[in-house]
Design a protein that fits this description.
The complex is a heterodimer of chains A (about 110) and B (about 110).
Chain A: E1 3-6, E2 10-14, E3 19-21, E4 23-26, E5 31-38, E6 45-50, E7 56-58, E8 64-68, E9 73-78, E10 87-95, E11 102-103, E12 107-112
Parallel strand pairs in A: 2-12
Antiparallel strand pairs in A: 1-4, 3-9, 5-6, 5-10, 7-8, 8-9, 10-11, 10-12
Chain B: E1 5-7, E2 10-13, E3 19-24, E4 31-37, E5 44-50, E6 53-57, E7 65-68, E8 75-79, E9 88-95, E10 104-105, E11 109-113
Parallel strand pairs in B: 2-11
Antiparallel strand pairs in B: 1-3, 3-8, 4-5, 4-9, 5-6, 7-8, 9-10, 9-11
The chains are: A mainly beta (about 110), B mainly beta (about 110).
Chain lengths: ~110, ~110
C-alpha cells in the first residue's frame, strides 16, 4: 500500500516570490507520482507527473517537481508565483502495477499581492 | 471531448433519504473511479471500474453505498439511508487503461445531509 504526506497545509507567499510545496510518500513498490491542482469551484487537474527517467519533471504553468528516491520525496516548485496560482495542490502516488491513486491531504497555496 | 461530467452538482437531503449521483466519463476512457473529499482532506478512494466490472471497493464504503457502471459507460453512485457523516464532495474521475495514465476529474457532486 502507498501513502502520501504533504508537510504543509497552507503556504502563504507574496507574488513573484519562489515557492516549494513539500510531498513525501511511502511505498513498498515502485511508484508513479503526480501533482494535481484544484482551483476554486473547479475539478482537480493534472499539473505534472513522474513515471520514469529524468528526476526533474516540468509541468504546466511553470511548475516543476523533483523525484528523490532516497528521500522518498516529490517536492513541487515554482520560481515566481502569480496571484492566479492561488489554489489547492495535491500530491498523489500510484504503484506501477496498480490502478489506485492515493492522494495527500493537500496544500493550500495563497499568493498575496 | 467534453470532459467528465457529474450530476447533480449539489444535493441537499434529509437524513434517511436515498440519493443517487451520476458520472459521465470521457468517452474513450475505460477506467472510472469514485472518490470522496471532505473539507481539508484530499480525495479518498471509494471504488474503481474497468469497463463495466467493479474491481475494487474501499472499506470506507458501507453496505449503504452501491455503484454501478452498466455497459461500461456512465456510472451511478447511490447512497441509501443517508447519514450526516455522508456529507462530502463526491468526485468522479476517468482514465485510459495503461501504465502511468493520469486521472481526469469532474467538478464533483456536493452532498449535504441535514
Amino acid at each position: 500500500a502507498q501513502s502520501v504526506t504533504q508537510l504543509d497545509s497552507q503556504v502563504p507567499v507574496f507574488e513573484e516570490a519562489p515557492v516549494e510545496l513539500r510531498c513525501n510518500y511511502s511505498s513498498s513498490v515502485s511508484v508513479y507520482l503526480f501533482w494535481y491542482v484544484q482551483y476554486p469551484n473547479q475539478g482537480l487537474q493534472l499539473l505534472l507527473k513522474y513515471l520514469s527517467g529524468s528526476t526533474l519533471v516540468k509541468g504546466i504553468n511553470g511548475f516543476e517537481a523533483e523525484f528523490n528516491k532516497s528521500q522518498t520525496s516529490f517536492h513541487l516548485r515554482k520560481p515566481s508565483v502569480h496571484i492566479s496560482d492561488t489554489a489547492e495542490y495535491f500530491c498523489a502516488v500510484r504503484g506501477t502495477g496498480g490502478f489506485k491513486t492515493i492522494f495527500g491531504a493537500g496544500t493550500r497555496l495563497f499568493v498575496k499581492a | 471531448d467534453t470532459g467528465v461530467s457529474q450530476d447533480p452538482r449539489h444535493k441537499i437531503t434529509k437524513r434517511g433519504q436515498n440519493v443517487t449521483f451520476r458520472c459521465d466519463p470521457i468517452s474513450e476512457h475505460n477506467r472510472l473511479y469514485w472518490y470522496r473529499q471532505t473539507l481539508g482532506q484530499g480525495p479518498e478512494f471509494l471504488t474503481y471500474f474497468q469497463n463495466e466490472a467493479q474491481l475494487e471497493k474501499s472499506r470506507l464504503l458501507s453496505d449503504r453505498f452501491s455503484a454501478e457502471r452498466p455497459k461500461g459507460s456512465f456510472s451511478t453512485l447511490e447512497i441509501q439511508r443517508t447519514e450526516q457523516g455522508d456529507s462530502a464532495m463526491y468526485l468522479c474521475a476517468s482514465s485510459l487503461a495503461g501504465t502511468g495514465t493520469e486521472l481526469f476529474f469532474g467538478e464533483g457532486s456536493r452532498l449535504t445531509v441535514l
